[in-house]
Every structure is written in C-alpha cells, then in structure tokens.
Design a protein that fits this description.
Helices cover about 40% and strands about 15% of the residues. The chain is an alpha/beta fold. The structure holds phosphoric acid mono(formamide)ester. The site of phosphoric acid mono(formamide)ester (CP) has 8 residues, from helix 2.
C-alpha cells in the first residue's frame, strides 16, 4: 500500500500509480463510513484550500467546499472574473502567492488548449499541491468517484466486466472531452474491458488514446473503439454515456454544433439499456440534458447510480486532500 502522497499534485489521472489510487479508495471508503456514523474526522484542521474557478460548477464546488469543512478546514471560493487575473496576474503569480496563503490550490479551467497548461504552470510555481477540478484534458476527481461507485456496485475485482464509454447527443454546449479521456486512462488499470463508442468526429486526443491503449495492454484488458451505440451497449456491465464536443475535429463552435446536430439518435433510452446486461448500471457525471442525452426513465430508473456517483465526489476528494495537503 503506497501511503505517502504528501505534497503531491493531482492534475492528470496517471499522476497517481495504481497502488496510490487503491490507497485513495481505501481512505475514501473509510471517510464515507465515518461520515455515516457522524464520527468527526478533522484531519485538516485549520488548513485552507483555494478553489479557483474559470468555469461554472455544481458538484465540484459543493463537494470540495463541504469536504474541507468536514475535514476541519476551510475552502475559499474564488471566481477568476473577480480576481486581477484579467489585469495581469499570471499563473506564476497565482502559484507563488496562493501557494503562500493556502495549503492547496484547486483549479477548474476547461478552455480548450489552455486549461491544462494553466494548471501545470501554476503547479510549477506553487509550494503546495495543485488539484485539478477539471481542465480541457482531464477530470481526475470525477473518475476517482466513478471508480469508487463501480467498486461499490460491482465489487473490487472488475476483471471481465465490460464498461462502455459512449458519446451521447446534447444540444446545450460543446462539452469538454476530459471525462471520456480520464475514464479511458484510469479504468483499464482496474481490470475493466473498455468499449469506446462515438461518431467519427468525436474522437479523443491521439496522445491520450495511445496512453489508454498502452494501459489496457499492460493490464491485459480489452480496448475496442466502435461507432455504433447499440453494438457498444450489448452485454455491458457499466454504461457511461455522455456528450462531449467535436473539439479534436474542430474548435469552431458553429461547425461543432452542426456536427453534433447530425447525431440526435445517440440517446440512452430504455430500449438501449435493455441491450446491456439486466444488472448493468447507468452512470453520468452530470449535469445531463434530460430526454435529449438520456431518457428520464433511465436516469431516474433502477439501473441509474448517478446520485451515488455524485456523492462519491465528496469522499474521494476528501481522501486525496487528507493524503496530499500537509
Ligand atoms: N460532474 C461535475 O464535475 O459537475 P460540476 O460541473 O457541476 O462540478
């Protein structure tokens, strides 16, 4: 068991080894149990986390803020537009200065081609851990929560279980590609056979695909790419279907929206869920476009685990904060 994570950043999913992720899961389950028993666990008394947001959030903000309070510390909510970032504060200033005020710096910056570089630049200049609350490439805390949820529902031995990571239609906006990318990086290490399904224009970053395929080879699990949602769902144990933008294909918003509009049939509905195993679970990180991306009957149905999944954000984030913040 690898327990020494003090001072570490978590920006990309593979920043923590498999053993270190196992430690995060163990601590997260313990913290979940302690919260259920109303047992105090002030592991970060008087510590303060900066939460710097360049993009909106419901779950990420709520769970980091509640998590720090439950650990005996405090989280400062900082929206980029209310700072002097627009007037000259660079990532160097944020890393240097926030690193001296705070015990950790959590950042959400999903702008395509910008977010991940920004986080890494802050980390270069910070003396405290930098935690990725979602960038343009990765969403590591979402995927830790997803993994915890899958373990809760399917057990710790996930070998020979089929997980589908599928694109789904949504009209609201070109969503980041960080969730599917983080899923395909993290899940093979835990034994799941992956099927990635998307229309051709929704391919993921080539370097992430290469890394994910190499993780799958190392773990001896399946990794298949298909462009047919029905074929992907067949006999699956875990369905994870969400929308993402055609950002690798085109960064142009209008062109992206036109491409998305071609694939309105990519919805997770009751008929499709029947193609999966009868005990398959339905997952989504939320927010979802209801009755566009997923039918109410599925997201509110007996196979849906979306609220447990959202809850587990709290427990895994507390685990990582307790392990990394000094
Ligand atoms: N899943 C997720 O990251 O939710 P928010 O965008 O609401 O934080």
């Amino acid at each position: 068991m690898q327990t020494y994570l003090r001072g570490r950043d978590l920006i990309g999913d593979l920043d923590f080894s498999k053993d270190e992720v196992e430690t995060v899961l163990d601590v997260a389950f313990d913290l979940k149990r302690r919260r259920a028993l109303n047992e105090l666990h002030p592991l970060l008394r008087d510590k303060v986390l900066a939460m710097l947001f360049f993009f909106s959030s419901t779950r990420t903000r709520g769970s980091f803020e509640a998590g720090m309070a439950q650990l005996g510390g405090h989280a400062a909510f900082i929206e980029s537009r209310t700072t002097q970032i627009a007037h000259g504060d660079t990532p160097k200033e944020i890393g240097e200065i926030f690193g001296r005020y705070f015990d950790g710096i959590a950042i959400r910056h999903v702008d395509w081609g910008i977010g991940n570089k920004y986080l890494n630049e802050v980390a270069k200049h910070s003396r405290v851990p930098v935690l990725n609350m979602q960038c343009d490439i990765y969403h590591p805390f979402q995927i830790l929560a997803d993994l915890m949820t899958i373990v809760e529902k399917k057990g710790r031995d996930l070998r020979r279980k089929k997980m589908v990571v599928s694109w789904a239609y949504a009209a609201s906006y070109q969503k980041p590609i960080s969730v599917p990318q983080s899923l395909i990086l993290q899940m093979p290490r835990f034994g799941l056979d992956l099927v990635l399904a998307h229309p051709p224009e929704f391919r993921l970053m080539p370097e992430i695909m290469d890394q994910a395929q190499s993780e799958a080879r190392r773990a001896g699990v399946g990794f298949e790419i298909v462009d047919d949602m029905d074929a992907a769902f067949k006999d699956a144990d875990v369905i994870y279907a969400k929308s993402w933008g055609a950002l690798v294909h085109t960064a142009d918003e209008k062109q992206g929206a036109e491409i998305i509009a071609k694939y309105k049939s990519w919805i997770t509905d009751e008929r499709r869920m029947k193609l999966a195993k009868p005990d398959a679970i339905y997952m989504h990180p939320l927010p979802a476009d209801r009755n566009i991306e997923v039918a109410d009957g599925v997201i509110d149905g007996p196979q849906s685990v979306v609220y447990d999944e959202a809850e587990n954000r709290l427990h895994v984030q507390k685990a990582v904060m307790a392990l990394t913040l000094s």
